[in-house]
Amino acid sequence: MWRRVASLSSSISSYSTSFVAQTASRLNTWESLTTGIAQQAKGFIAPKEKTPFITFVLGGPGSGKGTQCVKIVETFGFTHLSAGDLLRREIASDSADGAMILNTIREGKIVPSQVTVRLIQKEMESSDNDKFIIDGFPRTEENRVSFEQFIGVEPKVVLFFDCPEEEMVKRLLNRNQGRVDDNLETIKTRLKVFEALSLPVINYYSQRGNLYTIRAKGTEDEIFEQVRPIFTTFDVCQRAVE
Ligand SMILES: Nc1ncnc2c1ncn2[C@@H]1O[C@H](COP(=O)(O)OP(=O)(O)OP(=O)(O)O)[C@@H](O)[C@H]1O
Ligand SMILES: O=c1ccn([C@@H]2O[C@H](COP(=O)(O)O)[C@@H](O)[C@H]2O)c(=O)[nH]1
Ligand SMILES: [Mg+2]
User: Fold this and answer.
1) Any idea which ligand is nearest the CA of 119?
2) Tens digits of per-residue pLDDT, 45-80?
């Protein structure tokens, strides 16, 4: 199991952002408890500090992020964390934030960072894996900064599924999964939000040098053949392939 030295989940809701941010930066360390505690007790080596391998998957609505994440998980052994799915799970579980999240998704707008980051953090902490593919996040610069402050890890890989707008609209209107946001009015807002708030995040990672742009039109397999070589270059991704 991966966890931070101290959990910030409860702090996020009860303290001011600046306090939490300061605390977060002081606790910017990860440790492996499962191996660490047992080995210490037997007099083995000290717990190994290890940073999780994080991939962010970005792209407009309907660009095929979720579809490609399934293939990446199968091939390279990542744990898939879809920010949208985590938010929809909150709605379904009748949580305190459920109504606010539902309204925000229905309008095609963005849920406050602290809510989304807390959900992602919880999933990461309860996972045995050290490779996470985070789908549909960060959607704004504020999301990005918030993740870096609270989780304290930068992504190794950022995938951008670059898809023509008319193709995305066509896919969404044919998706048929009963999503409240798959209607033309909300899709128009989601496209505007993507351009205004998400493109700056993509530009940020482009400048950092860890952005990989995928031409996201074509068959699912053709698109995955652009994705595959990006991961095969990383040692940590070889384990799942062997
Ligand atoms: N290469 C493709 N060609 C045609 N249809 C596709 C392709 N990839 C995905 N689809 C279909 O398009 C729809 C949207 O795909 P998907 O849900 O993966 O997109 P997304 O980027 O995760 O969208 P959202 O941001 O709304 O969650 C789905 O019905 C999916 O089956
Ligand atoms: O980080 C996030 C991710 C998602 N949202 C909201 O959810 C919907 C649907 O997300 P998908 O990734 O398309 O499943 C999105 O339009 C936002 O309203 C969010 O606020 N923050
Ligand atoms: Mg999706």
Assistant:
1) 2
2) 444 357 999 999 999 999 999 999 999 999 999 999
Nearest-ligand number for the alpha carbon of 70: 1
The residue whose CA has the least distance to atom 28 of ligand 1 is: 175
Asked whether the bond before 138 is cis by omega within 30 degrees of 0, the reply is yes
**Per the confidence metrics, is the pTM higher than 0.95?**
no
What is the reported pLDDT for 30?
A: 44
- Cβ–ligand 2 distance for 118 under 6 Å, the answer no
Give the pairing of strands 131-135 and 30-32.
unpaired
Which residues, other chains included, contact 174 with Cβ-Cβ below 8 Å and sequence gap of 6+? none
Pocket test residue of 80, 171, 181 for ligand 2, highest count of atoms within 8 A of CB: 181
